[in-house]
Amino acid sequence: MPDINTVNRPDEWKIEQGLSGAVLPVLDMTGPETKALAPQTFGPLTKDEDAIKSVGDRDALFKAERKGWKGFVEWENHPDKKAAAHKILTSQTFPPNPEYQLGPIPATNPVLPGTHWKMWHHAVGGELTQIPEDSWDTVLREKHPDMLHLLQFPYNGEPPKRLVTDKVITPNSLHFVRNHGGIPMIDKEDYSFTLDGLVQNPRSFTLDDLMDESKFPRMEKTVTMQCSGTRRIEQITKYAGQGDEVPQAPWAEGAIGTANYVGVSLKKVVKACGGLIDGAKHLEFDGADTYFKDDEVMNYLVSVPWSKVKANEVLLAWEMNGETLPRIHGYPLRIVVLGYIGARSVKWLYRVKAIREPSRAPVQSKEYLYFPQQVGKHNLKMTDGIQIQEMPVSSAITSPWTKQVVIHNGRIRCKGWAYSGGGRWPERVELSTDGGFNWYTIPLESLSRKRKWTWRTWEFDLPCDVEGWIEIVCRCRDNALNTQPPDVRTAWNWGLHVTS
Ligand code: MTE
Question: What region holds the Oxidoreductase molybdopterin-binding domain (predicted)?
């Protein structure tokens, strides 16, 4: 066949249909004429060796700080160290984040390797050098071989749909993991955390201190933890390119899990410090991992209001489902906040600080925000966002799958979960085979037990007389009669959070 004489790109058809938007020119319509700007491209990577050398010996600058704490650098009280790491990071270039909202998501497991995150760690060096490798070894040791690894480093993974609701209590190896940084390797014997800030008598606590039942009564709670990004993939695939290019977490139905945690109430520990002083109203939690954001390094810091702690709804936990807390879930000690998004349940806790206002740290003040629909990348003001704390009521189908062919005798076996944040619980779960016109209520005996802080899993033989394409949808009403929006679009927001 003779060559076709065309100026079209080979995949012109695909590009025009919006299946490969990342290569489209940007249209600048701010002037009288529309101008087509070339899409952003990145040149070869550069490195200013002299500038990096001038920072000093990285192994000495970012050396091990505490005996038995591998991979921990405390950044928060050390502006000098932060500045040194910033200089290292800005004296060279790294590959850009993959923009897969506009292009295809790789069909691999791990889906994404996190190349630039690994490079940042290696570039800073010192205690961070080995972290990417240690973290992946931990994944392979502690997690189920069937986990879907969304991001290799920092590790983000969820169980495949068939295992998400297989058990009402999620086995530790199958509980989803959401990490912003690497996993610090902390020895239990050398572990302690500090409680300071606006408390009467600041002090440190070891695990033995907390485990002393004559001082702190044990607290045991079964808790569903949900990442606010659960089911973000629906927003990504339906409205590609419209949300935050959060490249690390294309979560599906599996970024939720339920476990039984043992520990003590943080309220009692604050009391052991003589209580709060000087108008303290929030507690900030510091995690020992290192998070990179906009060429800055930091520890993982968030806060919750004192009222939440005072209600005995914040736990310091060392046990998960009858086992020592796994390293990947925060060993030796983590926070578990009942009924709040997972982001507040800080792992590898090294400090609790009583403060007056919610934490100004980036994870609290710039992430996990819910923006109104009209806010996008270019007119984003952090103060327009609402800090996400309690997840809205939600439910999800884990079987059958989208576009799966089912041969049936008038009933389709469906499985899934339902959950509501803030201590509300699913009262009713309904299913429809016609996109939400006619609904069947799942009988209560087909839902798992009702508990204040947990999901309810369900299984139901859904009547269906139709042959052809059907649209199975579910919805939940919680005990406050909240229910879900009718479609994904209604819940769309820039950060692609709280898909319900
Ligand atoms: N704590 C630290 N120190 N670092 C983190 O990256 N991620 C948070 C939270 N605690 C995180 C953390 C987020 S966003 C979630 S959803 C939960 O941990 C997930 O807990 P899991 O990994 O044990 O399931």
Answer: 180-361
